[in-house]
């Protein structure tokens, strides 16, 4: 594991230690593992990691959900090299790793960030236009 992978894996482990996963959320996460074909988190391989990333990508998982899922997996015994592999993946092809997106940016690792920036700008414009209209009335 390289230094960045190690750092982000430690950051994920610290986040995991601060969480308490109730039975309902664990069952929800288990559905993701099952859909990805992961039978035993403690024996995951990088091929399993690719399947998990594909499932998360298809469902356009939020950064918060992705971070919580990985934290629960670390707690359940996911091998560190697999966690590192997942965290260093560039899931949306923008050159940033999943770890950078979920820990630093808070952007969605499974959606084009370009469109979300445009969308937020449109929402800001739309809301300011509506506010202007209210003031004029």
Structural class of the helices, strands and pairings? mainly alpha
- Main β sheet profile: none
- SSE order, as H and E? HHHHHHH
Shape: globular
Low-confidence stretches: 113-133
Q: What distance lies between the first and last C-alpha atoms, to the nearest angstrom?
A: 61 Å
Q: Beta fraction of the residues? A: under 5%
The chain-level mean pLDDT equals 80
* Count of alpha/pi helices: 7
- Percent range of helical residues: 55-70%
Oligomer: single chain
Number of strand segments: 0
Radius of gyration: 18 Å
Q: How is this fold's topology laid out?
A:
Blueprint: H1 3-17, H2 23-35, H3 46-58, H4 63-75, H5 80-87, H6 98-105, H7 113-136
Helix pairs in contact: 1-4, 1-5, 3-5
Describe this structure in words.
There is one protein chain. This protein is mainly α. It is 69% helix and 0% strand. The chain has helices spanning 3-17, 23-35, 46-58, 63-75, 80-87, 98-105, 113-136. Helix 1 packs across helix 4 (63-75), helix 1 packs across helix 5 (80-87) and helix 3 (46-58) crosses helix 5. It is globular.
Give a summary of the structure in a few sentences.
The protein is mainly alpha-helical and 137 residues long. It has helices spanning 3-17, 23-35, 46-58, 63-75, 80-87, 98-105, 113-136. The chain is built from seven helices and no strands.
Structure characteristics:
137 residues, mainly alpha, 7 helices, 69% helix
